[in-house]
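[Meeting: bench + compute handoff]

Bench side (C.D.) handed over the final construct sequence. Compute side (W.E.) agreed to return the predicted structure before the next meeting so the bench team could plan truncations. Sequence as handed over:
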Amino acid sequence: MNATAESTVIRTRGLSKRFGETLAVEALDLAVARGEVYGFLGPNGSGKSTTLRMLCGLLRPSAGDIEVLGHRLPEEAEALKRRLGYMTQSFSLYRDLSVAENLAFLAAVHELPRREARKRREELLARYRLERFRDRLAGTLSGGERQRLALAGAVLHRPDLLLLDEPTSAVDPQSRRDFWESLFELADAGTSVLVSTHYMDEAERCTRLAILDRGRLVADDTPRALMAALPGRPLRVEVERPRAARRLLESAPGVREVAQIGAALRLLVDERATPEAIAERLKEAGVEARVTPETATLEDVFVAATRRQREPAS
């Protein structure tokens, strides 16, 4: 989807960041539309956190242009602060203050009028199921409770855009699920969301997704479109000796990737590696196998996109 100028909340052109000899982000072009839940997917070191910090004005880019909510960065970072919410992957509120005190402090930072701040605090305590913890020190909360408090703090001032840096990396699966429901509630209410993750199931829930690898954008589209455009196709190989079969198939013509999934193998192949050809190769080595086509997943897309990035030019 190409965002128009009127609907775009984030636009970057040639965005790069260098730390000494290390190029952390390279020539990144992004266009994020208003109302999207836009995802950044990538391994550690792919440039996700560095990009988010540049987008909220905490890091100065080495090259390129950034415009967020109509403000040019880093020149207009101060004007952007009141319209932006930012949640880091580590808990960044005050552990020695209570839940209610943390929210009161943030309301003061954002200069909310006292009556509005009190009303907003009570609203968020109820929305994020924190009422019974209001007088508990933040440092004593569980991972999921801290996450809900951090989100409440990030949206206290009703930002137009919310940036989240791997916000679910330290919580249980149920808390992750609840957190994502909260994100879609925010999006439905008009807040645009950009969230980085390394979880495939979370990435699949985004309305649009960018895959980053080694600081470069290697894919950008809806999850459904990315899976439909997968270069290659996945196959499932059911075999009694998967480790032996894997060694036989890793060098087979047309096989791009082999992964063991339980007692079976999952292959990413091109047109040369038909199910019949794979089965025949294994049979010639004395290995009986059942080979069937599989439906593409976002993990297949991720593997294919990052593999292209890492393969040497021919």
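W.E. noted at the follow-up: The chain has two domains: 35-54+81-227, 231-295. C.D. will use this when planning the next construct.
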